[in-house]
């Protein structure tokens, strides 16, 4: 396993980490014994970086990770996230107010059964809260020895620059995989330039590029892939591409998952990838992708295949705007799902906005708002 410094921090993380979203039940039920088996196999195969969040299964993922690491805590670098809260209507929305962060971090420490969190990440930008208020709360946690390093997640260029104006960040956690390469345009170069680690999440696109999902796959009742917009269409649209990549993986003595993961960690600027896993065999297979990065020739060969296939899977969802408010960095809207996003002037309550489900960016406004406005 290769190990890499995470940004300017003293955390040396495995190039393949473990994502624990599945521990919260998002991929169907997973019990304590199964989660422990995954974590222990990860450690056996050199994985030392574990990513979780206070909102995966309402804290269950943190609990299961914490229990699995009992007696093994010093071998692990634990990253969690805060900065979301359940609103009055029961929806999970971004909330990075200092009081929310301070309370959430204490609760995470308890659930994880640890005295310190190695990396505490702001889960997503909160346009309703001044960034320096959030940063100061995190600094208090660092001063108290409860958090070693601060990171951010889902911070695109503008949000990251606003954050860096007031506070450092060890890392930014972003979606990155064969189909979602948006970070390559501006964010990845920015992170490299500023010495910020890049943690690639959803590197297998919910397991789609691991070679075992097809049109006939039946997902468990609670599995979020059943409800994810356009996932069925994505399975169909990527069949040819996945077959080509699987053939290349075979030729190189890799599995499809290993090809996808090694590709992600080979991009200059990407520190590590954090695939989720539900079974020890999966984590072992994934860990082997971290033995070495691809050479530029190998990367070029994969990129040629990716360019041949133009996958036009739907990424936009239409959402009604419930409210529009003025925030510290301009106007923002509360969307029907509870999420707050910055919006251009002219957007009003009752408008429909098209949101990119990968980037969280608004691309279009229908209704009374300015249709040319971009958030
Ligand atoms: N910062 C954020 O906003 C954010 C958002 C999402 C996720 N994340 C983090 O990123 C991590 C990764 O994302 P993810 O877990 O959603 O997606 P992912 O890593 O793309 O896919 C994980 C799923 O793929 C399947 N899988 C994994 N390894 C496999 C293998 N070797 N062979 C076959 N199937 C395999 C498993 O599901 P099946 O076996 O059921 O197919 C697993 O649950 C999360 O766990 C979480 O820590 C962060």
Give the overall silhouette: globular
CATH architectural label of the largest domain: Alpha-Beta Barrel
| Beta-strand segment tally | 17
Annotated CATH topology of the largest domain: TIM Barrel
Helical proportion, percent range: 25-40%
Mean pLDDT: 94
Low-pLDDT segments: 369-375
How would you characterize the overall build of this protein?
With 375 residues, the chain is α/β, with parallel strands linked by helices. The C terminus is likely disordered. The protein folds into 2 domains: 306 residues, NADP-dependent oxidoreductase domain (TIM Barrel, Alpha-Beta Barrel), CATH 3.20.20; 51 residues, Beta Barrel (OB fold (Dihydrolipoamide Acetyltransferase, E2P)), CATH 2.40.50. An 8-stranded parallel beta sheet has the order 3-4-5-8-9-10-11-12, with helices on one face. A 5-stranded antiparallel beta sheet has the order 15-14-13-16-17, with no helix packed on it. Strands 1-2 form a two-stranded antiparallel ribbon. It is built from 11 helices and 17 strands. The structure holds NADP nicotinamide-adenine-dinucleotide phosphate. The site of NADP nicotinamide-adenine-dinucleotide phosphate has 27 residues, from helix 10.
Provide a short characterization of the protein structure.
The chain is α/β, with parallel strands linked by helices. It contains eleven helices and 17 strands. The strands form four sheets. It has an eight-stranded parallel sheet, with helices on one face.
Primary descriptors:
alpha/beta, TIM Barrel, OB fold (Dihydrolipoamide Acetyltransferase, E2P), 8-stranded parallel beta sheet, 5-stranded antiparallel beta sheet, 11 helices, binds NADP nicotinamide-adenine-dinucleotide phosphate
